[in-house]
Amino acid sequence: MKHKYLYIISGVAGIIFIASLSLYAQAPRCKQGYVWREAYRGDYICVPPSSRSQAQNDNRYAKKRMLSNGRCVQGYVWREANRSDRVCVTPAIRSRTAAENRAHSSRVESSGSGSGKAVNIGCPVQTIDVQVKTRLPKEWWDTPQRGNLAGIDIQRIGGKPTLVCKYRAYGTTVSIMRKLPDGTSNCTKNGNQFRCQ
Length: 197
Known about the structure:
Blueprint: E1 3-12, E2 15-24, E3 35-36, E4 46-47, H1 49-60, E5 77-78, E6 88-89, H2 91-103, E7 119-122, E8 127-132, E9 145-157, E10 160-169, E11 172-179, E12 187-190, E13 193-196
């Protein structure tokens, strides 16, 4: 499984802490014959392998198909695999992408998101390494610290429900977060895991 990198930013007394984690994706299992589309980081929509290849190809040519103002060159439209996806593709690919999003729930294993059954999601790691990344005068240094998982929460961030894992480091709380899994609309806390459906 591919490694994903997540950056944590938390401000304390004017200092910015950034920790880098290597994460394994918490995602649904696709039924046989389907794979994750991976049009963007965190895209776990189950599609035929040819669609994933197409998404990778479209991502590779994204800059060549976009004007400096962010719009697509003539003959191309935004793919819209999610609300913020602005990769330029042909209208046929955008239509296929929308159809794949709608068909996702029928393409996942019974325990996967979008199947109508609950999905349990745990925090990706139990500890994080936190280090000050703010440039300090040469006479100063910091000591990297390890933070342990202290709890979880569900918060509204940017107007959207967000799963939050909280860690204690440097005497404060440092958080990592993710959106709700595709195909789910409600999550609750269940110990140190989220239960989403």
